[in-house]
Amino acid sequence: MKKRLFTLLGMVLTAVLLVTGCGSEPAPVHVHEPGQGRQPETVTQVSREDAVKQQNALKAIARKDGEKLQILTSFFPMYVMTLNVARGVPDVTVANLTAPQTGCLHDYSLTAEDMKKLAGADVFIVNGGGMESFLAKAVETNKRLAVVTASAGIPLIREGEEINPHVWLRIAYAREEVAGIARSLAALDPANAGAYRRNAREYDGQLAELQQYAGDKLKELKSRDIVTFHEAFPYFAQEQKLNIVRTIQREPGTEPTPKELEETIASVKALPVKVLCVEPQYPAGAAETIARETGATIVVLDPCVTGEAGPEAENSYLETMKKNIDTLYSVLK
Q: Helices 48-56 and 8-17 meet at what angle, rounded to 10?
């Protein structure tokens, strides 16, 4: 079996994974009251400078001639980023741990097949910030696995005791994650360091164009208020100066009780702007009821967490985020 080295980021990940991410306990509907303002605290578990140092200091993985480097990613956003960074690099494979339609890893449980994938991987790329909390024990016991935490060094939003891990939806932070992945792979696989860096620069250029497009498109909206059903978009809202005036937050994929629905309808009726943002990964039944009772407009914002596996996924983030930007412009202009 090829030699695989446990790295410093593996130890960092164990602490990061244990932080609550999207939430594992069912939560009641939570509605942010108007006028309160959304100024959540941000926390940084490792500074940007230290994250860069740790990534550059990773020890190279020893491989025999012709032996492939097996890179595993935790879920779809990490898969898309890593595909772009490792595109065309010889003797390197990129696979995703979870099925590409899994979405955010809410209450995900490892399967026997997942454990086999982890055992066969050389490098495991995760988002961090609590998104992969279910993996802490499995990663801790696999001491030969090199773990890369893409969000290392990025300020994370914390509201109460919960960390929000959806950093990739702020385009600037997606660019940081791509850069961190490239630095880490260059250190772990120095023979192909130049290719990883070139690919990352090319993809970063595309992300920079997307970031500019979003800024230009959304800078002069007549309204900047939206209502969301899940805490996926605070990072995006911060970047684009949108105001999430209500978050009807419940365990994703579940429906509110009749009493909760009644209270939510009353609250949304009081809003001057009635735009309900739903995600395609979860049922929209509650949103449809609220819209029918309040006259609100329903729009779909995609958190970029599902898609198809394979090379066609490379442009998934760019295409989905552009669609999100255009959708918001169409209802808020």
A: 140
